[in-house]
Amino acid sequence: MSITSEATITRRPAGAAARWFDICRYADLIPERGACAMLDGTQVAVFRAFDGTLFALSNLDPFSGAYVLSRGILGTRDGVPTVASPMYKQVFDLRTGVCLDDPRVAVPTFPVRRAAGGDRVEVALTDDRRQ
């Protein structure tokens, strides 16, 4: 199995401009399930954990090359919130995007927040994250 080029860890340059995108109502995100959003040509997997915490990372599974992480299974490993890819079952840290089964691999993460009085979910893309 090969790893796609998006699997490398990318750091945001200081001062990178961010643009926030409205994704959905907070209530529309089912706890422990993911949803996929297309933002300026970038597929983003958005998750609402059981405790209500929001996470956003690339929807691209770097091991299979398929855009499927939003369909992954949420869980924890040693207290770390995770998503397991539905393809080959690699587990990714939802906070950092690092693969816990192969720490050399990571998927990009994105800032996510509740806006408009907490009813709306927004995800940001920085200039360096746009395709």
Walk me through the structure.
By secondary structure, the protein is mainly β. It has a single domain (17-129), classed as Rieske [2Fe-2S] iron-sulphur domain (Rieske Iron-sulfur Protein). The protein is 0% helix and 39% strand. It contains no helices and 9 strands. The protein has a 3-stranded antiparallel sheet, with no helix packed on it. It is globular. Mean pLDDT is 88; it is low at 1-14.
Structural class estimated from helices and strands: mainly beta
Number of strands: 9
Number of helices: 0
Write down the overall mean pLDDT: 88
The number of domains: 1
Give a short account of the largest sheet. 3 strands, antiparallel
The CATH homologous superfamily: Rieske [2Fe-2S] iron-sulphur domain
Helix percentage range:
under 10%
CATH C-level class: Mainly Beta
Please give the order of strands in the largest beta sheet: 1-9-8
CATH topology: Rieske Iron-sulfur Protein
What's the architecture, going by CATH?
Answer: 3-layer Sandwich
Order of helices and strands: EEEEEEEEE
Radius of gyration, in angstroms, nearest whole number: 14 Å
Strand content: 35-45%
Q: Unreliable runs, pLDDT <50, ≥5 residues?
A: 1-14
Distance between the termini: 24 Å
Domain Rieske: 21-121
Protein name: Nitrite reductase small subunit NirD
Organism: Actinomadura violacea
Keywords: 2Fe-2S, Iron, Iron-sulfur, Metal-binding, Nitrate assimilation, Oxidoreductase
